[in-house]
Automatic annotation (TrEMBL):
Pfam families on file: Oxysterol_BP
Gene Ontology molecular functions: sterol binding
Record protein name field: Oxysterol-binding protein
InterPro entries in UniProt: OSBP_sf (IPR037239), Oxysterol-bd (IPR000648)
GO CC terms of this entry: cytosol; membrane
Top-level taxon of origin: Eukaryota
């Protein structure tokens, strides 16, 4: 099964008290495994492969329809796919706001552990692992629905943390988020902005944004976002890869970390290589592993997908602008594809009308 759907059971079955989640985080220690593990759907040459043949057939048929409608421009790479209306039958019953919050689904473990330590270097390591270990759980081949400008989302993490997101720009699409851990022992906020370009047999997503992690003692760690490649869109194995270089910065303690994807042509592209340096640029920690299975820092395994599962996120409705009550999402979750498509088109007409009234590109 693909992406988010693969881990749906894990989100729904892990019903434990908040205090138990926090206690587990405080007692967590690196894992003993030392093998070179990758998940079953990791592609031989790198990234996460789409193994669901039905989903693959559906997406490729929709892709062919779009190419026929738009022509050669989409294949030239000069068309911004964020401005194209996709049929809802090849989309997931979530918006980009849902995916924005899901990027923090490993927080109950790693950020509670980070908040409990007084060692700023150890905290930096935990933040790095918190971000990268989420990739296989947030990867999806089905396109999320575009949020309407001003659309919101509210959710809660298993440790009692609260999560908020809002669509703050339509073109370009920008989603802001804010997350508070239990008793504000950690805060995470930032934004996502992206462009998507199509090639002959791929889609490249360029992410522009950042995540900021704050702790009560004043330590602040920020990092950028990787780019994404969806290859095999029309033929071959369809796969999702994260590419580029992540840079983590702690200005207070003068630490900096760089994590490079696809660093070695002899290894699958999901393998990572990185280091943490001090104020003088000296390497003080080494990072290795793969976002498809395990991450090690200084020879200690901080994450292994076999042992650490994603945490549940519960969405609740607190505003009439909430994504959870969008008619297209509600009907799509009920399996009413035609009705969902009609609801989606009605929202798009309303959004174009509102944009015209504002007299602005935003």
């Amino acid at each position: 099964m693909e992406g988010i759907e693969e881990h749906k059971v894990a989100f729904q079955s892990n019903l434990r008290p908040e205090r138990e989640i926090i206690e587990e985080a405080l007692n967590w220690k690196p894992i003993d495994n030392t093998d070179d593990y990758r998940v079953e759907n990791a592609y031989a040459y790198g990234g996460i492969a789409l193994l669901d043949s039905a989903a693959l057939s559906k997406m490729r048929s929709v892709g062919k329809e779009i190419v026929k409608e738009i022509g050669r421009k989409i294949l030239s790479g000069h068309l911004n796919l964020t401005q194209i209306s996709f049929p809802i039958r090849c989309m997931q019953a979530n918006t980009a706001l849902h995916n924005t919050l899901k990027g923090s689904l490993m927080s109950p473990l790693y950020l509670n552990k980070a908040a409990a330590t007084s060692d700023p270097l150890e905290r930096m390591k935990l933040v790095i692992v918190c971000s990268i270990s989420s990739y296989i759980h947030t990867s999806t081949f089905l396109k999320p629905l575009n949020p309407i400008l001003g659309e919101t989302l509210h959710a809660r993490l298993e440790d009692g943390g609260e999560m908020w997101a809002e669509q703050t720009s339509h073109h370009p699409p920008v989603s802001h988020f804010y997350i508070e851990g239990p008793n504000k022992n950690y805060v995470c906020h930032g934004y996502y902005n992206y462009t998507a370009k199509a090639g002959l047999n791929s889609v490249t997503i360029t992410n522009v944004g950042k995540k900021v992690f704050q702790f009560p003692d004043g330590q602040i760690i920020t990092h950028n976002l990787p780019n994404e490649l969806f290859a095999g869109t029309f033929f071959g194995t369809m796969r999702h890869e994260s590419l580029g270089v992540l840079v983590f910065t702690d200005n207070l303690n003068r630490y900096k970390a760089k994590v490079e994807f696809a660093f070695n042509k002899n290894l699958p592209s999901d393998y990572i290589s990185g280091e943490i340096t001090d104020v003088h640029g000296n390497k003080i920690s080494e990072i290795s592993g793969t976002y498809c299975g395990h991450i090690e820092i200084d020879g200690k395994r901080y994450w292994d997908a076999r042992h650490i599962r994603p945490f549940r996120i519960d969405y609740d409705i607190i505003l009439p602008s909430d994504s959870e009550i969008r008619e297209d999402i509600v009907t799509l979750r009920r399996g009413l594809v035609d009705e969902a498509q009609a609801a989606k088109e009605a929202l798009e007409v309303l959004q174009r009308h509102d944009r015209k009234l504002r007299g602005s590109k935003h």
